[in-house]
Amino acid sequence: MKGIIKIILRYILSAAGIAVLLLITNLTFLTLWQSYSQKNKSPKYNVCNISQGLKKEGENFILSDKASSSIEDNFKWAMLLNDSGKVIWSKNLPKDVPLSYTSSDIASFSRWYLNDYPVKTWHHKNGLFVLGNSKHSTWKYNFEASEKAMFNSPKWLLAGLIINFLIAILLAFLFGIRFFNSLSSIAKAVEDMAKKKPVSLNIKGPFIDLANNINNTSKELLRQQKLIEKRDMARNNWINSVSHDIRTPLSIIMGYSSSLEDNTSFSKEEIKQFSIIRSQSEKIKQLIEDLNLTVKLEYEMQPLNMHPFFISELVRKIVVDYLNNLCENKYNLELSISDEAQRCMLNGDMRLFERALNNIIGNSMKYNENGCDIFIEIKEEDNFCIIEIKDNGIGFNNEVLENLNTSNEFPSGVSHGLGLFIVKQIITVHGGKTYFKNWNNGSYIILCIPAI
Asked: Does the pLDDT at position 44 exceed 60?
């Protein structure tokens, strides 16, 4: 909501800024137009200067070159009337301009037009000096105002600007309210979509297309959500059903194969075959348990028995168990725990952590049949417990690394697949992160878990 208010305020301020800019632009344009319209009033070309260029010498009138040039460049014709209203001198006088005028004629054209010719007049010592321009070249309008009104004109101009500014702000505010109502509805709809709630916007105006797109998107998301839930439910039910159906016959196979394996009446080759049957059955059982666990972790159905424990003690126990049970010398385990990590405590399900560590160590042994060295290091950094497990075996291929580091779906490959995916799930439900990489051609796994 605060973000929307900021948008509205920015919208109103932008509108106000535009209004001020328009006012300044209009005033600037008015000033330029006034300057352009008055350019012929420059002292160089005004009637007074041109009139002074007309001199009487004897019975004749002589016009100076400068005045003549000014008439040619800025006007069209000129004439001089005596006190009786007769033309006593002229230059380029049009044929339709009379040569004699009454006092009322002079009073009329001195302010406006003479036969549609815009004219300007000036008092000459020998009469009335008249300058004329071509028809339809100048627009004249009489403007009168009281001295008091002209004296107060700056105040009126300022008041007009303020009123214009306030009106612009008011209009911007009204449009902003409408914009805010539409935008808040859209924001609420987006929040509902994020919460997987149905959305049905009924907005008109400029946001109608956006509202329709949001409505359609909401329907599509709900439809896809139902399909995903249906698919996940079917997968979960299928795994549970298969696990349940396999568990009983698998237990029978394991029981009979174990009994046959212990029966000394069979040959060594037959006992070896019974041993293979039992070990492969145990692998199937482990795979079923892994599938059940990963489904429960994915849908948060796995009950977590959370309590504080020292991670160093758990890792020592796991390493000792492996060393005691190893019947071959081709695997070597090395454990290093920093002084800070000796006292590092985690709050979590110890059983799941043990499962994760066993999966990592067992994975290194499983895929390095010719043997390898496994190095385990525990340290504490910035209130996080860091567990690094690496080996000098065959390592991960690029496809497995990409799947483990970037995907949250079930692994598509078989090698290094489900077991390490479960590790990633276990660390994630405890608020931690996992990193998978290669080290000297071997695998390198980092577990980063928040410490108490």
From this structure: no
